[in-house]
């Protein structure tokens, strides 16, 4: 079966309708008539939408929804943009739309790989790239059908969003290595926390709460470390001049502290017995 590199107009509508409920096939065709998008056409004239087409369409819909821009202004903004991902970030699109959550029944099923473009709006080739880099797993049925675990849908959506920043599946391999390295630590802690007296349902709930707590803490450490490394690399917070100033201040403070310590030692030194009396006696005898 040939892999699908494009989405149909119906798949695009399904993909974006969660954020734009009034989106329809006719609206997309209207935007094409206005020259805002130009989908690929098959020899038979069917419209096919690439990832870039979908991203461009989402920017258009976002600007209409949040900025109330007329189409001619949107077209000028798109035509003058050097990079669509940068434009999407600048207009707040990438941080504006919440990540869709899959229903529990969807997460607990295996889905044929050919259904993924309709369900998630991503290409089969992208799913294969994720599997090739161990980000998800493609399960094979006894009849060699390729199936995708619904629990991996969240990862697929997140990786698709990262792809807007030109972060490809191969760039995310480091997180697979990190997860493999961290999972034994989580398992060891969670086993000790769970105990064995709960029912299966209670155990699952306790496991979920404990995992989320551990994840929040370790993710907080990871996020802080990553942010520090990135910010230091892009724009050093502490400059050389600051370091010199800190050294001078600390040196002066240490010298003052040492001086105060010496003065305190001198004033608290005990008076030697007999010395003052002998001095006064000698003085009196001289008279």
Description:
It contains 13 helices and 5 strands. Helix 3 (51-67) packs across helix 4 and helix 10 (173-194) packs across helix 11 (200-234). Mean pLDDT is 82; it is low at 279-287. The protein is mainly alpha-helical and 287 residues long. The chain has a 3-stranded antiparallel sheet, with no helix packed on it. Strands 1-2 form a two-stranded antiparallel ribbon. The chain is flat. It is 61% helix and 5% strand. Strand 4 and strand 5 (146-149) form a beta hairpin. It folds into 3 domains: 9-90, Multidrug-efflux Transporter Regulator, Chain: A, Domain 2 (Orthogonal Bundle), CATH 1.10.1660.10; 99-175, Multidrug-efflux Transporter Regulator, Chain: A, Domain 2 (Orthogonal Bundle); 195-258. The termini are far apart. The relative contact order is 0.06. It has helices spanning 9-16, 25-33, 51-67, 71-80, 84-90, 104-107, 116-120, 124-132, 153-162, 173-194, 200-234, 240-267, 275-286, and strands at residues 40-41, 47-48, 110-112, 138-140, 146-149.
